[in-house]
Every structure is written in structure tokens, then in C-alpha cells.
Amino acid sequence: MADVIADMLSDVPPEMGTIFLGMLAGLAAAAQLLTRRKDAAASTWLAGADQPGKQAYEHFAAWYSVVWMGAFGVIIAAQLYEQFTEVEYLGVLGGLALPLFLQPVLAPAQAERSLPFWKRYGFKANAWIWIYSFIGNYWYTHYFFSVLKANYTFPSWRLNYVPFCLYLATHFYFSSYHVLSNALLRKVATTYAAGPARWVFSALMVLCLSYATAFMETFTIAGFPYYTFENRSMAYTVGSAFYGIYFIYSFPMFFLLDERSYGPARTLYETVVDACGCGMLILTTLDLVRLALSIPLTIPGSLWELVH
Predict the structure, then answer these.
(1) What is the pLDDT of residue 11?
(2) In sequence order, which residues have a C-beta less than 8 Å from that of residue 77 and are 6 or more positions away?
(3) Where are the domains of the chain?
(4) Which three-class secondary structure state does DSSP give residue 159?
(5) At what angle do helices 86-106 and 52-77 cross, to 10 degrees?
(6) Using CB atoms within 10 A of its CB, is residue 31 exposed (0-12), middle (13-18) or buried (19+)?
(7) Where are its TM segments located (predicted)?
(8) Residue 251 main-chain phi, psi, to 5 deg
(9) Residue 115 CA, distance from chain mean position
(10) What is the pLDDT of residues 254-295, one digit of tens each?
């Protein structure tokens, strides 16, 4: 295990330290302009009792993050994946995604139990994340194949050449990421007075969090040998910025879903439209970056196939 960690750290380019120090310095400078709210004692990380559905979902997703991360840690550390076929990959990753899908049905907030399941916050949040992650896998992954020369080499059933088990894995990955971003954005919104300074700080925080999230995922999965890059150093530095484009849009947009202080609750239809709109913004930005780099987009494979 120590050797694996040492190998992972050896691949991290030294300029990553400079990048993260620069981000922290920028946030610290922007924080000096913030003014605390008069009711800042009521500041909070997770949704409060006035948003019971959102509170129940965020608490569940936060605690469940420990479960799936622990499971991944065991699988990577013990190299259990070496015994996996396409069946085990689909079963394990699908099994880890299932509790999140079931939360709005089996463990909703008490105040939401009388509502049809499609009106519960947890169902809308899952729909939002599923649409967002589905679009990401179906479309955005090909930008990683083309721009960063990424490749998956483990056995899997593939939809549009992307392992279908990863459509399921990104659901619980992204659920955790967005609960974290919700907590940070809410903490800022409930602690500091509204105005240009808070807007600038929040925007800068989203940019930094997006980059850091992308880097940490790339780094922590480096111990899995069947997800490769042509140049891992570039994947950490440039690739994290490229991947971070996903979250620059999705973190603030997901936060607004049924956030009481920003407007009324969304219907399921409005939630679906919002997620699709977010997906289109990301796709357009990724393609603009690709065009600016003069890199052709190549999409191989079939609609559905088994790749060993």
C-alpha cells in the first residue's frame, strides 16, 4: 500500500503545489472584503429544518459518502479489481449507486412522506445528478479521450464506448461532490452579507473547488491501473482545469435546486430542464476549449458493446 501511495505521489508535478497555494492566496485575499451578516450566528453548512427534504437528502448523501469511499479504498488497496469481470464491475458500482436512488423512496424526510415520490427533494436531486452524469459520460468522456488521450482498459459493457458501470459510479461520486459544494456555498451565503464582495468570493470559491475536486478524483484513482492517460502530469495540471469545467456550472446550479432563500421549489419537469441546460453549457464550453486547441473530436465504438 505504501508503495502504491509513493508511486501516486511521484507522478504529481511540483507545479501543483504552486497552483494550490495560488488558489488559497486568492481566496484569502477575497475573504478580506467580506462582511459578516448580523444574523451570522445562524450560519449553517447543511440544509436546516425549514428545508426538511433537502436536509434529509444532504445528511444521507454526506454519511453515505463515507461508505462508498471506504468500499473504493478497500477495492483499490486490496486490488480486488484484478478478479473483476464486466459482471462484477457492473454489480459493485451499481450496488454502490443503489442506496442513493432508494433514499427518496425508503428514507425521505418525515415532512415529505405524504408527498408523491416525484415531488420529494431527494428524487429531484437524484434526477438532476443522473441526467448531469449521464450527459457527462455519454458526451464529455470523449473529450477526455481526444484531448487528454485517456483510456479505459478494464472489461465492461459500454454505451457509446464508455463503460456503463461508470455511468453508475459517477452518480455517487457526483452526489458527494455536490453535497460538499452545497455545504460550502450555503455556509458563505448564511455567514456573510450579500453584495459584490460575497459574489466575487463565492465565484472564486467555485472555481477553486472545481479544480481541486477534479484533481483529487484524478489523483485518488491513479492507483487503478486500468484508467490511463498518455501524459499523467498533464492530466493533473491541465486535465484538472478541463474536468473542472463540469463543476464550474454544476456546483452553483445544483445548489439553487429547492434552496428556500433563492426561490420556490422546482417541479420535476423544471429540475430536468435545469439539468439539461447545465449539461449543454458544459458541452459547449468543452467544445470551445477543444476547438481553441485545434484538437479533432473522435468518437469510436458502437451504441452498446462488450469490450474485454
Answers:
(1) 78
(2) 1, 4, 223
(3) 18-33+45-295
(4) strand
(5) 160
(6) middle
(7) 16-34, 61-81, 87-109, 121-141, 161-180, 201-227, 233-257
(8) -60, -55
(9) 28
(10) 999 999 889 899 999 999 999 999 999 999 999 999 999 999
